[in-house]
Design goal:
Blueprint: H1 3-13, H2 27-35, E1 60-61, H3 66-71, E2 83-84, E3 90-91, H4 96-103, H5 122-131, H6 143-154
Helix pairs in contact: 2-6
Length: 177
């Protein structure tokens, strides 16, 4: 997906009801993929994965932390430009739509997530993010695929949609998706 297409997607996506952003799969999402309790609500999980050049520290910005600014003298977003979430965090100025979803209490920010004993391989880390499984474990399905498989046993319409020019992400791999 080119940068302009990515921006167009994000502009369009601001009308969604729930957005989950993250660099790695939180443990609670991995557990949910295996044993989600039945729910009668109409919530929708939207996962936006910006593979490639997304700078996470300039997406959800720790603008209240002086270390952010001192370590990024040319990349840091100015305090007066940040869309403040609170006294410490804010969004990149181009994320006004996402900020509005947060203000409407339809978005959660999940920070400081990861996995034990991380390695320095970008590719291995992406596989762990997609599957919630290490290299020495079988990786035949992804965490979203398992979640959707489990939901499809409870509901008729619990499918997934993948948008983009790339192959379907490993996170969506499953027996039924």
């Amino acid at each position: 997906m080119t940068m302009s297409h990515r921006r167009d997607f994000l502009r369009t996506a601001v009308g969604t009801s729930v957005v989950s952003l993250g660099a790695t799969a939180p443990e609670f999402l991995c557990r949910a993929a295996w044993g989600q309790e039945e729910s009668n609500d109409d919530r929708i999980l939207v996962v936006i994965q910006l593979s490639g050049g997304n700078d996470g520290l300039n997406t959800v910005i720790p603008y209240g932390n002086d270390v952010y600014r001192s370590n990024r003298p040319t990349l840091a977003i100015g305090k007066d430009e940040v869309l403040a979430v609170n006294d410490d965090l804010g969004f990149h100025p181009s994320m006004l739509g996402i900020a509005e979803i947060l203000e409407a209490d339809k978005l959660s920010i999940i920070q400081n997530v990861g996995y034990a004993n991380p390695n320095r391989s970008h590719f291995e880390s992406m596989d762990i993010w997609h599957t919630c499984q290490r290299k020495n474990q079988t990786r035949s399905s992804g965490w979203l695929g398992r979640f959707i498989d489990q939901r499809s046993e409870q509901e008729q319409d619990s499918g997934a949609v993948h948008l983009g020019q790339e192959e379907k992400p490993l996170a969506l791999a499953s027996e039924k998706v």
